[in-house]
Design goal:
By secondary structure, this protein is mainly α. The chain is about 75% helix and about 0% strand.
Length: about 120
Amino acid sequence: EEEEERQGFAASSPAARSCSSTGDPDEVEVRFDSPSNRIHVCIFLNEVEENQQVSIQKVELIRLKSMSYKHPKMDCEVLRIESELRERELEHVRMQREIRESMRRKEELEQEIDKL
């Protein structure tokens, strides 16, 4: 059964090599072929987390907007969350640009190394 788990996990992520043996399905130990694989997975996990946070904020915003007609004081909270979401989205775009740039540099370096 453990072998099945290990194979299933490895198949879902080529960078991953093993699962945790603690028996906790939420706890996963991952080994990487290379440091750059580790970086890519970390970037991906950060993206997922950021998207979840933004989704939670958007739901909260909708909830607050629906209540604000009853509570005029809610308006400033709605405005605060809206501006925070805008800033997060701008930061997200900036991060995406930096990631693309660093990936491009990595590929260039790999090509240079291959020439040596």
